[in-house]
Each structure stands twice: as C-alpha cells, then as structure tokens.
C-alpha cells in the first residue's frame, strides 16, 4: 500500500497522520483504555511521543510493508483514532489489523467502520487473510471484530506481552478475502434488552461483580455433589469465569446467566447454555439455585426462559441436560418444562479417586415445551 492513499468508506476517512493530529493523538493514546489494551503505546504518552509517531513511527510502519492510517471524520477531517496493518507475512498474503479510538469517538461504530474499510482496502491490494487479536477482557474490541466480519478462530496462549513483562492469552479473529460481507452471525446472540424475564424471575449475563456470589453458590456441598467430577471450584476459577463471561458469550463458547428475583432484585442462582454440537444445533443447559430460593418454582421458570430463548432468537434445534441419577429435584424441574428422559450412560462422567459416575440425560425439542 502507498501511504499517500486516502480511503473513504463506511462513513470514515483513512489518511496519513499529520502534524495537526498531535493534540488528539495525545488525548487518545494517553487514555486509560488505550493504555490498558494497547501495551505497545508508550506510558505515559506525551506530546513528544505523538510527534515521533507522526514524523518517524508511522512512516516506518509503511516502510516495513504495513500500514498506519489516521481514522478521520470525513466532514471535518479531525482525528478520531488510528488503524493499521502490521506483522505482514508475504508468503501467506497475511497481515494483522489493529485500531484505537479517542474516547469521544467510541460507541458510535467508528472502529467497526474503520476496520471494514481497511480490511476491504487490504483485500483489494492483494492481502488474502487478516488476523485481529484481542485480549480476553477487551469485549468492546471483540464486538468490533464481529461487526467487521471477522470470525473467532481460537486462542493464542501467552501471545501478548504486558507492560510488566508478563504474558497473557489473546483471542484470534480472522477474515478472509472471500468471506461474505457484513457482520459475522453469532452463535449466541445478545439477550433482548439484556434480560430474559417472566416478571417473576429474570436472567441476565453473568458479570465480574457476581464472583463472590457465584463462589458461594458453586462451593456448596449439594451443588458440588451434582458436578462431574464433584470437586469444589477455586475462587480464582470462579472470578475468571465471571470476568470472562461476556467474552465466552461473544466467542460462542457458553452463555452464563444469573437468575434474579424480579420483586426484590436479589440473586437466586445461575444457569448456562452451550452448544454440544453446532452442526446439528444441539445445546446443553445447566442450573443451580441458592437454598433460600429452592422449592419455589424458580429453577423451572429459569429453565423455561432459557429454553424459549434457545429455540427462538438463538436458533437451537434441540436441548439436553445431563444429571446424576440421584438428583431427583433437578429431574422434576426438567420434566415440568417438557424435557424427557432419554438415556442412562453408565460410567460416562469422572468421579473421585478414579471412580466413574452415571449420566442420566434429558432432552427437549421445540414442540415439547410446556
């Protein structure tokens, strides 16, 4: 690509950086969010750093076979952020795409528009594969990737480096030159208005602040006894589960939800939905309630809400739920929703000290919901 080339598409302008961008560069690159998720930026970011980028840094990216564009407002030409291509692999016709935005430009679709514009320009000039890497907690960037037509491809372990020298995992999102245009369809769409409710219970996505509650729930002996293997979770694992709940939802791995009492706003338990086989549209659900909310029909209501969403907006064709044979309370919940006993798989699940546990499976089809 030629650095002089200006790209205008999808409501944004991509152009070379200029001296007039200095103040906005400092504002955008010194912002805490930019500093958190773009560890290659100097910290603190000063006017000296901005001048270096305009005069030497960006030209060096171009000279090395990459691209370093300013994202500008087409009406005013004011800087909104930056987008670029790096780590080119000519033998694979591959490059890595990245972006950042000034705070005032966020939440308006600018990053997705710039990523789409730069991706299309890269494909038009010979690139065949683009990679976009995001930190696991950077869900805003993950939403940009999906909106720009990138697909989740996997996890790169310890591929990122922190400012303190430590390493962290990165999610890989990929778009190919011959991928269809438009956003990437999601396996697990967002909830309508962020919640599912029957006006008695409500389900909403698990959040980082739910960690203490979730640890207390999933450490209870009767809850642990119905897990396979029946081993209490660590506090660290529960904190990570809550912290990465949105990311797991966006990648299509699992939808984890909190069950809430509508009248009081108090949490009652948790539930989850994940694919067991994407190609056949089969998913699996699980749930657990805190003691004070058991025996009041809350688990049945939560499972019914989850099943309605799964068969509706999420597009599942079949749901299953695995239980230990002794968990008769859970069996009653499933049967009230319409699940039918389908199979007893002997010794399917890991137990303690090398033991094996039986798995009693229930299944539900859309027409069987009660």
UniProtKB/TrEMBL annotation:
InterPro entries: Acyl_CoA_acyltransferase (IPR016181), GNAT_dom (IPR000182), Ribosomal_N-acetyltransferase (IPR051908). Residues 12-177, 201-363 form the N-acetyltransferase domain. Keywords: Transferase. CDD domains: NAT_SF. One of its GO terms (molecular function) is protein N-terminal-serine acetyltransferase activity. One of its GO terms (cellular component) is cytoplasm. This is GCN5 N-acetyltransferase. It comes from Micromonospora lupini str. Lupac 08.
